[in-house]
Structures are given as structure tokens and as C-alpha cells.
Amino acid sequence: MLVSIGKREKRLKNEKLLTVNDLTVEFRIGRRRKIEAVAGASLDIGVGETLGLVGESGCGKSTIARSIVGLQKVKKGRIIYSGQDLLQCTKQRMKKIRPQVQMIFQDAVASLNPGRKIGKSIEEPLRVIGWADRQERGHRTHEIMKAVGLDPEQMASRYPHEFSGGQCQRVSLARALILRPRLLICDEPVSSLDVSIQAQILNLLENMKRRFELTMLFISHDLSVVKNISDRVAVMYLGKICEIASSEELYRSPRHPYTALLLASVPEPDTAPKKQKKGTFHGEIPSPAEPPPGCRFHTRCPNAKDICIEVEPELKRFAGGRQAACHFPL
């Protein structure tokens, strides 16, 4: 019986729920200049899988998330959800799809209406999609509040300013889950929380994933957090995906120099005298408005050669399904 369950889980993860192909997003700077926040990024997420998306601040992680849920205009590319290109869907079709793709934001407090009681905030998505029966909406709201660890009798009538950051993140999670989505996008949901509260929210996300059979895109700059929650990890640098691999493989043996240096920069809890780590970053992050030619990481890469300056590397597949965009993979 256990073997059959394992085979079923593997099959589900091989079935793609979301595919982002060659996504490009631009922002204007003044009247004439433009910046490519995302430059031809591609990734996919299997049914029931958690894909971690990591990278330095400003690399385009949140822009990808906002593009998927329709909050950001896309210049070109394809976003395929359950076989349908979201960028080509009609408004009527998108109205049916949107409840299936929900997002929780980094600043949970700011994402809530300060003048609305949290019970009403959690219930609001049901009203928007047309649940007319107030009693049914109230029942579903109480049910989902209990699921995320909030007492509906005591907390439904309170306002956001009466809650801690961790409690507000639970409210945001309840608001996202009340529509029973298939895909949940988490945009740095624990980065502003204390370490102990982070662990509680991460455990809650894992429980909710199993309970509601969720597929998740988990965005963070904290590599230790991503390692513990993700099945696979995609590494992003300056608008480009530079490596994708299973969590275990990526942390054990990264193929892209940027991934290796990113892992080497993670602080280790050790009171003994420390030796300087091999491989450290040098140079500043280039401006996204004027990205370097060739490989965008070559200005900081210790292994850069002439070809890295001249030719942009493609995201190539290696054994085991992992991918890396590097002329000289490790």
C-alpha cells in the first residue's frame, strides 16, 4: 500500500500544474528608459509539489509571483495553468480560474484592510465570487479560521491592529484558503517574523498543504527556510533563472557558481574560530537597467572566462532532471 501511494505522489508531481515559459516583464524608468525585472524566465511546478524560488533582493522573484496571479502586466511569454494560457484567457474564463490561484504576501498587516474586521476580510473572497448565502459564508469562515489556528468566536470581530504579525499572516492564509485553491503562492511569508513564529507558520503551511492538497510556489531569500519546505528549488539572479534542482541535490552539489556562492554565504551557528570560506562574492550587483552582456553573473563570478562575457548561457538539462545556465557548470 505504501509503495502505491509513493508511486501516485511521484506521478502527480510529474503532472505539471503551472508552467512559466520565457516570461519577460518590463518597468519604465522615466520617459525613455526601461528595466527588465524578469528576462525570459522559465519554470514549472508539478501537482502537489512545492517549488522554492530564491535569490537576492531585487532579482525578480516577486514580479514572477505577481505576474502569475495577474497583478503585473507581462511583456511577453506564456503562463500555462492546468493546460490554459492565462495571458490569453478571456475575462469570463479568468473569473473562473482566479479562485484556484491564490497568494499570500510578505507584509501581512499591510495586505489587510485596517478598517474591516478580520472575519469579514476572510469572508470577502466568497462574497466576490458570488456566494449569496450569508450563513454559508459565515460557516466556511469559521471553519477556515479554526484550520489555521484562529478562534473565530474571539477573533472574528477584531481589527488587524489588534493582532501580531504572525496572527495577521494566519489571517492572510485563511483568506487565501477559503476559496479552496489548487495553487498557493507564498511571497516571503515569514521574512518579517521572529524565528520562533517563522517555524509555526512554516509548520502550518505544511499542514495546510496536506489537508487541502495544495501545490505551492514558495518565495524567499532565506535558503535554510526554502530547504526545509521545498521539493525543488529554482535560483534566480538579475531577472534570470540560473539553476533548478531538487532541494537535496541543490544543497549538496550546486552546479551554478552563483548557487554555490549563495550557499557559502549562509551563516553557520558555530562558536569555534572560523576560517574564511572558500568562494566569496566580489563586486557589486549590476544595475538591472544596464545588465552586463553574456552571462549576467560574470562580473562577480570567480570562474568567468571570455565566452561568459560574450555569450549568454542557456538553461541546460543535466542528469536527474536538474538544470543550470552556465558555460562551466561545477
UniProtKB/TrEMBL annotation:
Any Pfam family: ABC_tran
Entry keywords, A to Z: ATP-binding, Nucleotide-binding, Transport
GO BP annotation list: peptide transport; transmembrane transport
Segment forming the signal sequence: none
Domain (ABC transporter) ranges: 18-263
Entries under SUPFAM superfamilies matching the protein: P-loop containing nucleoside triphosphate hydrolases
Top-level taxon of the source organism: Bacteria
Ion transport is among the record's keywords: no
Positions of region (Disordered): 269-296
MF terms in GO: ATP binding; ATP hydrolysis activity
Family: Belongs to the ABC transporter superfamily.
Protein name: ABC transporter ATP-binding protein
Species this protein is from: Desulfosarcina widdelii
